[in-house]
């Protein structure tokens, strides 16, 4: 492919790998410095019918940035500025390539926070988190990115630039296109500017309760107990016994090892006693941490996937199922049964407070790994849950997403989603053959 027309835009020929280990082999990687350059790249791709893959930081766990040869990557990392922090209207306006950790630090200096904190916050870009509608450790109280995006500028697949939404807390003007693009996984356009809602850092003192549980089942029972008692933590996260061991081994975490792994609950100081009551009989050891110690636990939790990756010698599939919280005990029991069937451990990491479980499957044999993966996802569908809470669909979960939508919503809903993709991207150049499009193909090939 002759890229002379784009020669003044920074570019490289290189192979990459996403976090799931998927190889990415584009014809070229472009590093636009501004929106105009993004527009030129997109127009060029449209003219040449060349697939474009937007790239944030490549921490996708679902193959969402995969591409093999006949495609170009648009790496947004050079568009990484904070354009405005509005301390009265309470929003921040950023370019997509800024790393989430850098944004968090700047907001903190001004006394603000953006609550959704994917455990990859120290790696991922804001654009990637918006395109995936990432959730995070504080999701139980604050939701995922979907709830924090106010407005977006997007370069559409035909090169036209649109701004959807307004930096307003309330806005009822027209269909909600902002939330069509949030979570669209780069399949509808390239996001070039983002307005996000921010809130002041709360003044009430928070503490972190680290409960080393007596068994895995207790984790689900505690969460149901918190709900029954109308307790809403800021964070309720879980890592199972094998993840605790992996954290000790690879990150010198020095955590107590028990049968049931570790449940972390961050909550206002005056609610600690209520939580301790719910934990009665479920925990072998409880620590109440503040300040630096609490931050260390938070940081260890955010690095749990890194420890699992080190343990697994890179062969792992990260599940991302969600079940209704009331079904957590059943999901945990069935997960244990599936583990026994495949004679494997699942290295469960979980935003357990909102029913979101990440069993990590490290079975060497690919067929068995895929079978276990699908069985777990189908269990979630059966329990009225979802195949993905936050990691998205990419390539990996397209078939399962089709099954979920057909079962819970009906064929016509997936068909409508596919019509939207075709309407916005008729030439099928924007991150093609993934997500909705791939799910639709699975559905139609099944007949
Ligand atoms: C250690 C680890 C922990 C994780 N923990 C969590 C977690 O707790 N919660 C969670 O939700 N996820 C988690 N993830 C998954 C992942 O980090 C998120 O999906 C992340 O937000 C993606 O950001 P990225 O910048 O790496 O995007 P990429 O992986 O580069 O891209 C992700 C998708 O977004 C698209 N995209 C990127 N930028 C743009 C743009 N500007 N415009 C349009 N499309 C774009 C890409 O095409 C792709 O489809 C974790 C991943 C790792 C490795």
UniProtKB/TrEMBL annotation:
Cofactor(s) the protein needs: FAD
PROSITE patterns: FAD_PCMH (PS51387)
Key words of the record: FAD, Flavoprotein, Oxidoreductase
Listed GO MF terms: FAD binding; oxidoreductase activity
Domain of life: Archaea
Domain called FAD-binding PCMH-type: residue spans: 22-201
Keyword Membrane in record: no
Matches recorded under InterPro entries: FAD-bd_oxidored_4_C, FAD-bd_PCMH, FAD-bd_PCMH-like_sf, FAD-bd_PCMH_sub2, FAD-linked_Oxase-like_C, FAD-linked_OxidoTrans_Type4, Oxid_FAD_bind_N, Vanillyl_alc_oxidase_C-sub2
Descriptive protein name: FAD linked oxidase domain protein
Record organism: Saccharolobus islandicus (strain M.14.25 / Kamchatka #1) (Sulfolobus islandicus)
């Amino acid at each position: 492919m002759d890229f002379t027309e784009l020669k003044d835009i920074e570019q490289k020929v290189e192979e990459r790998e996403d976090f799931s280990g998927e190889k990415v082999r584009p014809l070229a990687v472009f590093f636009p410095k501004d929106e105009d350059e993004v527009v030129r790249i997109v127009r060029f791709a449209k003219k040449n019918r060349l697939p474009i893959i937007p790239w944030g930081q490549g921490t996708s766990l679902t193959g969402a940035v995969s591409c093999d040869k006949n495609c170009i990557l648009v790496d947004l990392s050079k568009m990484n500025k904070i354009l405005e922090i509005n301390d009265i209207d309470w929003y921040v306006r950023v370019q997509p390539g800024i790393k989430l950790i850098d944004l968090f630090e700047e907001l903190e200096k001004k006394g603000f926070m953006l609550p959704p904190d994917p455990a990859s916050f120290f790696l991922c870009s804001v654009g990637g988190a918006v395109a995936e509608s990432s959730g995070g450790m504080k999701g139980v109280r604050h939701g995922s990115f979907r709830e924090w995006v106010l407005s977006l500028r997007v370069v559409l697949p035909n090169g036209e630039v649109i701004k959807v939404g307004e930096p307003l807390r309330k806005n009822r003007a027209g269909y909600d296109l902002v939330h069509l693009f949030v979570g669209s996984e780069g399949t509808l356009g390239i996001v070039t500017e983002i307005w996000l809602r921010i809130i002041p850092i709360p003044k009430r003192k928070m503490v972190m309760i680290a409960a080393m549980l007596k068994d895995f089942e207790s984790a689900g029972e505690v969460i149901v107990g918190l709900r029954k008692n109308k307790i809403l933590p800021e964070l309720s996260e879980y890592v199972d016994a094998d993840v605790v061991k992996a954290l000790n081994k690879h990150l010198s975490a020095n955590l107590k090892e028990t049968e049931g792994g570790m449940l972390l609950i961050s909550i206002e100081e005056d609610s600690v006693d209520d939580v301790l009551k719910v934990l009665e009989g479920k925990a072998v050891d409880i620590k109440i941490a503040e300040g630096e110690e609490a931050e260390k636990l938070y940081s260890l939790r955010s690095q749990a996937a890194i420890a699992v990756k080190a343990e697994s010698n890179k062969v792992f599939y990260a599940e991302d199922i969600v079940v209704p919280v009331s079904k957590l005990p059943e999901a945990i029991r069935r997960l244990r049964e599936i583990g026994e069937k495949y004679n494997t451990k699942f290295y469960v990491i979980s935003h357990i407070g909102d029913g979101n479980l990440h069993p990590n499957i490290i079975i060497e044999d690919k067929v068995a790994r895929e079978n276990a993966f699908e069985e777990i996802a189908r269990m979630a569908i059966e329990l009225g849950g979802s195949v993905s809470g936050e990691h998205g669909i990419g390539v990996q979960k397209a078939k399962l997403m089709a099954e979920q939508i057909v079962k819970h919503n009906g064929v016509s809903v997936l068909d409508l989603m596919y019509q939207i993709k075709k309407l916005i991207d008729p030439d099928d150049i924007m991150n093609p053959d993934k997500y909705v499009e791939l799910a639709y193909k699975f559905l139609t090939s099944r007949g």
